[in-house]
């Protein structure tokens, strides 16, 4: 089963301390009229970077718990505003920009686990200003253009995750 593989992979990543397991939430909503919209966030620390909401998984939480915690902390999105979750539909590792150990002891970089979630709440979000500078609900093409503004390797990874999300939504 796919979820068992993810649990095993995440457990092994925590144990090895090579790549930090990181959840990435691709949130979307379908407005009554118009094209599907995806949420992208602007980093408060690196304002040229746009991404999807994401955060590192803590040792004793599931990937879903990690994503719901991060969405609540950084954007004020509560779990009852999320439905149709597909957790871990795509994953990929990305080496750190510099060879360094992060503050939690992970040496190589991050392992990104993507989740696709339909948002049914108010599109005006409450931002944690220390983490998120701005948010935008964008069409697929617009989201790709915003993601391209960041570090090339990470932008490409995020775009692949979005492409996989789009395929899932067509099924």
Indicate the topology.
Elements: H1 2-16, E1 19-29, E2 37-43, E3 50-51, E4 54-56, H2 63-75, E5 82-95, E6 109-119, E7 132-138, H3 140-147, H4 152-170
Q: Would you kindly provide a written description of the structure presented here, covering whatever features stand out?
A:
The chain is of the alpha+beta class. The chain is 32% helix and 32% strand. It is built from four helices and seven strands, in the order H-E-E-E-E-H-E-E-E-H-H. It has helices at 2-16, 63-75, 140-147, 152-170; strands spanning 19-29, 37-43, 50-51, 54-56, 82-95, 109-119, 132-138. Strands 1, 2, 3, 4, 5, 6 and 7 form a seven-stranded mixed β-sheet that branches. A hairpin with a 6-residue loop joins strand 2 and strand 3. The longest helix has 19 residues, at 152-170. It is globular. The mean pLDDT is 86.
Put the structure in a nutshell:
By secondary structure, this protein is an alpha+beta fold. The chain contains 4 helices and 7 strands, in the order H-E-E-E-E-H-E-E-E-H-H. Strand 2 (37-43) and strand 3 (50-51) form a beta hairpin.
Can you give the helix content as a percent range? Answer: 25-40%
The Cα radius of gyration reads 15 Å
Task: Characterize the overall form.
Answer: globular
Low-confidence stretches: none
DSSP summary: helix tally: 4
Oligomerization: single chain
